[in-house]
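hey so i finaly got around to running the thing on Cof-type HAD-IIB family hydrolase from Candidatus Ruthenibacterium merdavium. pasting the sequence first so u can double check i didnt mess up the copy paste, my clipboard has been acting weird all day
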Amino acid sequence: MNYRMLVLDLDDTLLKDDRTVSELTRRRLLEAQQQGMIVVLASGRPTYAMQHLAKELCLAEYGGYFISFNGARITSCADQHILLSVDISHAQMCKLFDLAQEHGVYIQTYTEDHILVSKDNEYTQIEKEITGMDVIECADFKAEIPKTAVKAMMLEHPDRLKEVEKALRPVVENELYMTITKPFFLEFMNPAVDKGKSLVTLAQHLNVPMEQVIAVGDSYNDISMIKAAGLGVAMGNAVEAVKQAADYETADNEHDGVARVVERFFLQKDKS
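ok and heres what it spat out for the 3d tokens, dont ask me to read them lol
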């Protein structure tokens, strides 16, 4: 198969545990792009928090794209044109705030370059470290959040968050898309949003057949794009549900799993 597009989750997939791209992976991605491959970064991260990686990998030069906020935004790296934007309403945000208060968990949302939080906490600080975005603590969360938002996130210890997810699923399942990204991040988006749907939209826009797309990920929010792609790849460190959904398993994020995919399926450096 002549694959033309490679779609990569970031944390624990493209990125090592120290949140950097290995030198081998960087070289392989540049080499493949020079041969015509389109690289798409697909993450729950805000677009702002992906820009430095696009620069490092020269995505603008080679026609790369972002699928950010778990699929709520599709953005061209070359000119920052937004191809897709799907939000949740202010009323939905207010409902989520009330539910967060009821269940005793933290909640936050985003502007283009800031994290808005009802109360600063250790988990929001992890998000700040990951994204590089400043945190604004809102004295009146409902009054200070935007009229629409790309997503909301509830945060707490993973054991508690699993309980909250179970409790909220019948409450929001017909109104919002809900997924755990990291164990302490429970995200809520417009139900029209997920990585798989946005990947299909982008591939259609670029006239790339889905059978010529490879998607690589490690966590639950990657399953839809792994199933949608012609070849779905699970990282060696992926959760079991991702491995079950995938067609192929590569090495883990500490051992150049993404580079191995590029070598085997784009550069034909490894036929084993």
